[in-house]
Amino acid sequence: MDVILIAAVAENGVIGRDNAMPWRLKSDMTHFRELTIGKPVVMGRNTYLSIGKPLKDRTTIVASRDRTFAAPGIVVAPSLEAAMSVARGDALRRGADAIIVAGGADIYAQAMPRATSLAITEVHMRAEGDACFPAIDAKLWHESGRSEHAAGAEDAAAFAFVNYRRVAGGAPAPVAQATGRD
Ligand SMILES: NC(=O)c1ccc[n+]([C@@H]2O[C@H](COP(=O)([O-])OP(=O)(O)OC[C@H]3O[C@@H](n4cnc5c(N)ncnc54)[C@H](OP(=O)(O)O)[C@@H]3O)[C@@H](O)[C@H]2O)c1
Question: What pTM was computed for the model?
């Protein structure tokens, strides 16, 4: 089962500001939908709150340590481990070949060791912000695809869709294995 981290990242690593996206990038929203449709999507509570609703046609699995947190149309998981386990069951039921991890910074950092690939939108601008994507270690990840795009009418900047695969031998941590960080 692939575990794909999907993120839009500015040139300086920024992904968010004040629990919102620091830019408008309509083309990337379309890309996100295309990549994630029909798959389970794991995210942290802050990212869920910034989106404000479940993702349509996808199972939205939200990690939160707050046992009182609940919202209609989402599955709340008390640990990243539990979230990945729910996602795996959902993917198997749907016949999906991947689990999507959709952020934010806290969840990306914890899920990176389990990821098999990264779907990064490189946003060709520097952004002010308080949330960053973890460094992509060139010893562990190799670029497997790239397409460059000019900014569309509703895009704040030009961007590239970049895929990374884990290098051979750099096996991810098993999806259902505790890391001690949950
Ligand atoms: N550019 C992009 O592609 C992109 C994508 C996604 C998000 N973002 C941005 O990223 C920012 C949000 O990131 P963030 O780091 O603040 O928050 P986050 O990762 O979305 O959520 C963090 C929260 O998730 C829960 N959590 C984290 N680890 C957990 C674990 N192991 N077990 C159970 N619950 C866990 C906790 O919720 P509780 O406090 O409820 O316990 C924690 O406070 C926003 O600015 C957002 O816009 C950007």
Answer: 0.95
